Amino acid sequence: MKYKLKQKQNQRITRITDATLVVGADIAKKIHVARAVDFRGIELGKDCVFHNDQAGLTKLATWMKELGQTHSKTNIVFGIEPTGL
To answer: pTM to 2 decimals?
Structure first.
């Protein structure tokens, strides 16, 4: 089982190219923060602070789209990291 998970993770990593915007979000109780980097790990733009409601998620989606357009990224990979784990 562990091998299959590692293989799946490696397959996902190989999909990240110079056209990929990698976005990670730190999820907390009330306020969340997202950060974007390129395929080399270079931070792109400022962090996005958002709430877990319709307005906050719209803000996050708009931020990702605009950042992707600004940096000519045609693919977005998104992941979350729960705070406190």
So the answer is: 0.80
Cα 85 to Cα 74: distance, rounded to the nearest angstrom: 32
Q: Is residue 59 part of a domain?
A: yes
> Between the CA of residue 25 and those of 1, 22, 36, what are the distances in Å?
27, 10, 9
Tokens 């998970």 belong to residue: 5
| 16 within a domain of the structure (yes/no) | no
Residues 37-50 pLDDT 10s: 999 999 999 999 99
Structure tokens at 53: 């409601």
Structure token digits, residue 65 = 């789209």
- Which phi and psi (to 5°) does residue 17 adopt? -125, -175
